[in-house]
Amino acid sequence: MAGRLSLTRLPSQAPAATAVPAMAARMAPVAAASSFRIFPAAASRARLSVSSSSSSTSLCSRKCLRSSPLVSHLFLNQKRSPVARVSENRGLSSVATPKCAASDPDQLKSAREDIKELLKNKFCHPILVRLGWHDSGTYNKNIQEWPQRGGANGSLRFEIELKHGANAGLVNALKILQPIKDKYSGVTYADLFQLASATAIEEAGGPKIPMKYGRVDVTGPEQCPEEGRLPDAGPPSPADHLRDVFYRMGLSDKEIVALSGAHTLGRSRPERSGWGKPETKYTKEGPGAPGGQSWTVQWLKFDNSYFKDIKERRDEDLLVLPTDAILFEDPSFKVFAEKYAEDEEAFFKDYAEAHAKLSILGAKFDPPEGIVINEGPSESAPEKFEAAKYSSGKRELSDSMKQRIRAEYEAFGGSPDKPLPTNYFLNIIIVIAVLAVLTSLLGN
């Protein structure tokens, strides 16, 4: 199941997407100008209709509904999620209506734990990284409007984009993640793709990536980008081609080389891409589905082996694409490739920054500042302390503000068990000053 990892578009057949149905018949109701309708299971004649002129349903509810798993299942041929309950006359239950925030922080954390378990069982690190990259890698910095500018917006879940040549085989990544999406309906597809990608890097031994979440999903296949925004593997001029594609996204030569280093994970399968061997001594027994040709010997371990192996080229069983070889041939690229081959720590640092930058390209966030999930409680933007709000004594400090004050107190050496350390010299000066004042008063 582990697949090829790349932002590189490889000549290929259409993905084996038997699990993804044709969408023409299913999308017809959604494309209506004034309203859209969702038809659940055939056994039920219930129908949910949301009209653009309805006074009982807010715009916010309609926006959230369109990005809910109910609509997405129409394209993925999965069983309907129980997020929304439909009745003949009353539509959505008020209890089941999804929130208008992009993703729920607690569900994001839980989904991350499920992804970790998935990686342990299916060894699907490479294809999940590739999924996140290809959803965000369509970004065009020269287009301001969302979602026309492309980027990390969940559009890769639609069949029309899955059929792009560069996305061959990614339907398998979608099928792997769909049960997690069903379980955590409060997480958008855009966030789930990027969460899976970053988690796969970290669980493979890579650096901690400073991610943020809260990406808004596109709502229909008409919002998918046109084909051709992702790079090819074997263009006539690899250096110029890489720069054309990555500069369009606002990325630098350093970031191009650092991101290329993620080829330390994964394999290329000739039946999908036209590149690589059917199998090698490193891939014939898996793990995961056997076969394909890897860039490195340990193709499920994230390290700097990719740069070392390309530089040495001593093993014919290891893959080197034209866009890989150019990293040590182009003078500007070579500076960074040589550095990363010698210094894994420098590679990890630059890769983490480049991956985080790639993951937010083109995204629209709700809340605008995004959501950060750590090992502790999830949080959005830090609360700004304004003394006037608390000066009356009638308002209690929030938990987050208490934690900030506590952290600052402990930074000075204090703790719940002991007071701050005493400055004895300052105390002596104060005592002398007090005695001087008392002596003066007694003298008068």
Automatic annotation (TrEMBL):
- Indicate whether Protease appears among the record's keywords: no
Q: Which Gene3D superfamilies match?
A: 1.10.520.10, Peroxidase, domain 2 (1.10.420.10)
Compartments reported by the entry: Plastid, Chloroplast
Kindly provide the name given to this protein in its UniProt entry.
L-ascorbate peroxidase
Task: Name the reaction it catalyses.
Answer: L-ascorbate + H2O2 = L-dehydroascorbate + 2 H2O
Question: Which PANTHER family does the UniProt entry name for this protein?
Answer: L-ASCORBATE PEROXIDASE S, CHLOROPLASTIC_MITOCHONDRIAL, THYLAKOID LUMENAL 29 KDA PROTEIN, CHLOROPLASTIC-RELATED
**Plant heme peroxidase family profile domain span:** 187-372
Q: Which PROSITE patterns match?
A: PEROXIDASE_1 (PS00435), PEROXIDASE_4 (PS50873)
| Organism of derivation | Morella rubra
Cite the residue spans of the region called Disordered.
262-290
Known EC number = 1.11.1.11
Q: Where are the transmembrane segments?
A: 424-443
